[in-house]
Amino acid sequence: MTIESIVAAARHSRDWEPLVNLVPYARFLGVRLDIRGDQFGACMPFDKKLIGNPALPALHGGAIGGFLESAGLFYLLWDMDSADLPKTINFTFEYLRSGRPVDTYAQVFMVKQGRRVAHLRVEAWQSSPDKPIAIGHGNFMLKPVDEPQTSKP
Amino acid sequence: MPDVENNQADKVRKWQQITVISPYSRELGLRLHEVEPDWCVIKVLPDERLVGNPASGVVHGGVITALLDSCYGLAIFVKLNNLRPMATLDLRIDYLKPATPGREILGGAVCYKLGHELAFVRGAAYHDSPDDPIATSSGIFMFTDGPVIPLEAALTMLEGFKP
Q1: Rounded to whole angstroms, how far apart are CA atoms B90 and B139?
Q2: pLDDT, tens digit, 9 for 90 and up, residues B45-54
Q3: CA distances for B28 relative to A85, A112, B19, B67, B70, angstroms
Q4: Kind plus residue range of the DSSP H or E element containing A14
Q5: Going by DSSP bridges, is the β-strand pair B51-53/A132-141 parallel, antiparallel, or unpaired?
Q6: Burial zone of A67 (CB within 10 Å; 0-12 exposed, 13-18 middle, 19+ buried)
């Protein structure tokens, strides 16, 4: 199954789990997509393995970071017709609050959509969307469906 | 110089225990590779669970994020020679090329400015040399409230918490 066909099937069935299951690291983080109509949301349910500082305890910055980047990639697959997983060009994380040992949610904002590059802002929150625990922004290289594919694997 | 080698092995063994205090680092299988005052290296071994693109088998960017974040924390601790509570404030990663599937990835970092409240770090993820990076990165960490624990005391405390 290609990414394209899995995304098409998910749009039809409104079940996005197969898409998450396709990406081993997203499954490792336990990412779930919560898509209602034209609202995209993602969740990383709390798991003890996501702890970085066991004394506080607080989630690992790398786990929050991976979740933000994953949410951005899934948003792009959901939002546009892509022939393959977009490639992250760069990503910057601002950690604003300590990640508590509870479920973490993400909302994604398309800041700029170009033909080849999309710029996203992704916000992670726990208690309330207006109190983000971390904000990520980054550029993603897109692979539009209509562009001829190179022979790279 | 066997003594130097022994000291180095001892240093790696001690800091390895600090590296895996974090459950997430343990889960990713992070291992200390090298520890020098100005270059600390942690490695992540190939693992099917960490793949980002199933078609190519390339590791997920989030793994590089976690590797470098952990490495930064270590580089700051090593520079301080003690464990001081801190939090990541800012982390930037540029992805220069995909990691080669099936190869271990090294994350190297240096703390190039240690202030009273902030620590500035930079580093890279690579296979063979930081001059041929998979990703380059920089970050800022902020010290938080809490006790500063000397390395030896932290290791003694860990003895009591062995799972």
Answers
A1: 5
A2: 999 999 999 8
A3: 23, 33, 11, 9, 11
A4: none
A5: unpaired
A6: buried
Interface pTM, i.e. ipTM: 0.90
CA distance A108 to A137: 10
Kindly state whether A61 is in contact with chain B, defined as any CB-CB distance less than 8 angstroms: yes
Compute the nearest-CA separation of A48 from chain B (Å): 7
pLDDT tens-digit map of B57-73: 999 999 999 999 999 99
Inter-chain residue contact B24 with A24, CB threshold 8 Å: no
Q: d(Cα B160, Cα A40) in Å, to the nearest integer?
A: 45
Q: Degrees (nearest 5) of the Cα angle A122, B138, B142? A: 80
Residue written as token pair 């980002």: B52
Express each pLDDT in B91-134 by its tens digit. Answer: 999 999 999 999 999 999 999 999 999 999 999 999 999 999 99
- Following DSSP, what letter does each residue of A34-62 receive, concatenated? EEETTEEEEEE---GGGEEETTTTEE-HH
Q: Which pLDDT band holds residue B157 (cuts at 50, 70, 90)?
A: confident
Distance (Å) from the C-alpha of residue A141 to the closest C-alpha of chain B?
A: 11
What's this model's pTM, rounded to 2 decimal places? 0.92
- The dihedral through the CA atoms of B36, A52, B31, A30 has a sign that is negative
Strands B82-83 and B149-150, by their bridges, are antiparallel
CA distances from B30 to B27, B35, B107, B145, B154 (A): 8, 14, 10, 27, 19
Collect all residues with Cβ–Cβ distance below 8 Å to B2 and sequence separation of at least 6.
none
Q: A-chain residues within 8 Å CB-CB of B24?
A: 49-52, 59-60, 62-63
